[in-house]
Specification:
The complex is a heterodimer of chains A (296) and B (248).
Chain A: E1 2-6, H1 16-28, E2 32-35, H2 57-69, E3 73-76, H3 79-94, H4 96-105, E4 117-120, H5 121-129, H6 131-136, E5 146-149, H7 171-178, E6 182-183, H8 197-200, H9 202-218, E7 223-226, H10 229-237, H11 239-245, E8 254-256, H12 257-265, H13 279-287
Parallel strand pairs in A: 1-2, 1-3, 3-4, 5-6, 5-7, 7-8
Helix pairs in contact in A: 1-12, 2-3
Chain B: E1 13-18, E2 21-26, H1 31-37, E3 57-61, E4 69-72, E5 83-86, H2 106-112, H3 124-128, H4 135-143, H5 147-153, H6 162-166, H7 173-188, H8 193-203, H9 208-216, H10 219-227
Parallel strand pairs in B: 1-5
Antiparallel strand pairs in B: 1-2, 3-4, 3-5
Helix pairs in contact in B: 4-5, 4-7, 5-7
The chains are: A alpha/beta (296), B alpha+beta (248).
Amino acid sequence: MKISYYPGCTLKTKAKNLESSALACLDALGVEYEELPRWNCCGAVYSLSDDDLIHLIAPVRDLIRVQEQGFDTVLTLCSMCYNTLARANELMKNDEVKRGTINDFMDEEPDYKGEIKVVHFLDFIRDEIGWDKLKASVKNSLNGMKLAPYYGCTLLRPGDVSIDKSNSPVVFEECMEALGAEIVKFPKAIECCGSYQVLGNPEAALKVSNDIITDATAHGAEAMALTCPLCDYNLGHRQEEMLKKYKGTKALPMFYFTQLMAVALGVDPENYNLDLNQNISQEFLKGKNLLEKVTT
Amino acid sequence: MTEVKAVEIKAKLIPIYIMGKKYEVPETLTIMKAIEYAGYRYIRGCGCRGGVCGACSTVYRKPGSYKIMSGLACQTVVEPDMYLTQIPFYPAIRSTYNFEELTGKPEEVFDLYQELFRCVACNACSKVCPMDVEVMDYISALKRGDIKAAAEISFDCIQCGLCASRCMGELPQYHIAQLARRINGRYLTPQAEHLKTMVANIESGRYQESLTGLKVMDINMLKETYTARELEPATGGEDWTPKENIGL
């Protein structure tokens, strides 16, 4: 099986650790992928204004590029890109009038009607690989790691693009469980990390991020798995600031779920790119004896 | 002696509209020549007349179409009823920086040109480019920090500024691309070691004596020296090297 892969801008700069670890996992699982030869920024946020069609041009253009590349499905890693591409795709599929306006505007491109299927890494693994095969591929089990999978918003909302049941998802937990982790369920796993409020109101964003981390640790988590670079910024990169402000909060190592998957599948540690995580993340894995190269 | 009679060839005159006013011009002319034929005189907005300097960018439209077309006035031949105007300069922002202080990181480009992130991928820039550069593609590459790709995609840019003139995000694409190419040349492309050696040789004064000698040499001696210079023989073969490799 071969699939088209859309990386997104952040995965080429700040979140290289998300991309390198995920691609190494695909290799380990025998999935062939081909990065889109031409792609542009998807816009990162799906515009909520009903008549703001200009911000749909970017994601629709990317979907046209997937068609040009000769694929019918595109794989995304960043949950913001997933959400933006999937929602733009739904609109092109279902709204005939707006579809016409957008296609007319892009008169240099072929017409697009939502033919491409947009998937995220998590539902791709669930539907195309399956938990059993994933489990069978584990060489370096996360056994004993009390892990809190945190979804954030954009994989689950709105309902029509959710990769699982919006209010009671299990896909992330099942995935990490297949890798051997002990799953810590916590109520705030599907709440917002503060997202772009970090720009306009950083204090408010810090507060909700702190609530998420304290909720996870209160339920016994010793590490958290993430899917989104913006969540990683709010929960990971701002954690030092958070610990200074909220005295009762305990530090919690953050990982992209693909990094933990890469560890479990025993891929070459150079693909983890842990230097882009907080320092405690690397120390945590060392403490669990999970950083030695697996030789099998 | 036979008398040669000049044969008068008259090109057909066609109507074109320069800034909305109608002129009859010979159909064989370029836009630039036609504008001059119509009586305008260039004191600016005209550079090399060879299609490389980017000074004479022109936008035009043909009857029956909403499409705004573009071209270089010195390269594009007039067509009947074309509506045109020249945009010789565009007041797009150009950031100033001390190149020596840059290190080649994408974040430096982001800081110098924050407008980069106003791009919505509408592609108007690529559509108007008279050099067929995929402008939007290099802007996309820069947004993801790929300076090398941006430098390569924008290689044919002649800095005419038409991309900026059409941009709804008010990006100065051509100036950003120039920065990308500079960074690529300085920091991302492998350095030519032999060039460094050569510069060091020159700076060490190794060629000073022979250069000064040439400057004061008598003309006949100069000719003789020139004729006697070592040339690669036609049958030299791949392994031939000069007796004195003064370069390195």
